[in-house]
Specification:
alpha/beta, binds adenosine-5'-triphosphate, 10 helices, Rossmann fold, single chain, 291 residues, four-stranded antiparallel beta sheet, seven-stranded mixed beta sheet
């Protein structure tokens, strides 16, 4: 892969707080102090993925994921964008026979998210995911957002109330739902449901939020709201977004990775990828010659 613009200081900080020892877990902070930040949130290293039928959909990808930046993954249909994204929070574990190789290191702890010691359920709380089609649970708005907190073992009503409100505010939907928190999530519009799903992903304060074509089922107004929201969120959470829409990648992302046939062909600052791609395949794709 060509990384045309990056030099990364991998110096780690040693200031990570000790794990809570209380019976009831604490909420992790949504915004860590600057001293605890690392320029790198994750490292995808020599990563390959095989579906259960033996097909290798991802081929030895190396990619840094920068902290509190939006990384867009683009490329032609079938190149492996969603497969890579879903690997980052162990979605493929839900189907037997799928296989990962290599590492996905979460910084600053250096934990390998696809290693045998990592619990996929906990990984999904640290690396949240929002899908193409809004998919709220058949529950109330409140319970949708509280779901991840309950999985995390948080039971205190006051803690859950506060975290639900915070997540709904961060997802820019609080004002629209604050008077009907116990109404069905299905009564919301498509755009509201998608922002609710973003709130659900944000509630456990993940380090990374994955977005798989989050606006492809939305109209232009709802799309613009979600794009604004994603940009605002990148001040507090690292975002990786898969999109078919190159204008969207150019508009909202800081870094862009171009994938082709399972390989990450080029990765760099979004501006550079779209104005001065180094790899001829990237250039062909962004100039519309294929894909
Ligand atoms: N469950 C599966 N079993 C076997 N192969 C699969 C499976 N899901 C996807 N693939 C294959 O893996 C490759 C990558 O698919 P993936 O969905 O990640 O591509 P994509 O770039 O996200 O495509 P699109 O832009 O069309 O959504 C494709 O060749 C696809 O056919």
């Amino acid at each position: 892969m060509t990384d045309t613009t990056m030099t990364i200081d991998k110096t780690k900080t040693d200031t990570q707080p000790a794990a809570p020892t209380k019976a009831e877990p604490d909420m992790p902070p949504a915004i860590k102090p600057a001293a605890e930040r690392d320029p790198l949130r994750a490292r995808i290293e020599n990563f390959s993925f095989y579906y259960s039928n033996g097909f290798q959909a991802i081929k030895q990808v190396d990619m840094p994921i920068l902290d509190r930046k939006i990384t867009a993954i683009i490329g032609p249909s079938g190149c492996g964008k969603s497969t890579l994204l879903r690997s980052l929070n162990r979605m493929h574990d839900l189907y037997p026979g799928n296989r990962y190789e290599g590492k996905v290191i979460l910084e600053p702890e250096g934990e390998n998210l696809i290693g045998p010691e990592a619990d996929p359920v906990l990984v999904r709380l640290r690396v949240g995911m929002v899908f193409q089609k809004p998919n709220p649970f058949p529950k109330s708005i409140y319970e949708n957002v509280a779901a991840g907190l309950r999985v995390r073992g948080i039971k205190k009503r006051a803690v859950i109330d506060e975290a639900v409100e915070t997540a709904l505010r961060r997802a820019a939907i609080w004002d629209e739902v604050k008077d009907k928190l116990h109404g069905s999530a299905y009564d919301l519009s498509g755009g509201q449901q998608q922002r609710l799903c973003i709130a659900r992903g944000l509630a456990p304060n993940p380090e990374i939020l994955l977005l798989d074509e989050p606006t492809s089922a939305l109209d232009p107004i709802a799309t613009a709201k979600v794009e604004d929201l994603v940009q605002e969120l990148s001040e507090t959470v690292t975002i990786v977004i898969v999109t078919h829409n190159m204008q969207q990648a150019a508009r909202i992302s800081h870094r862009t990775a171009f994938m082709y046939l399972g390989e990450a062909i080029e990765f760099g600052d979004t501006n550079q990828i779209f104005t001065n791609p180094k790899h001829p395949r990237t250039e062909s794709y962004i100039t519309g010659r294929y894909g």
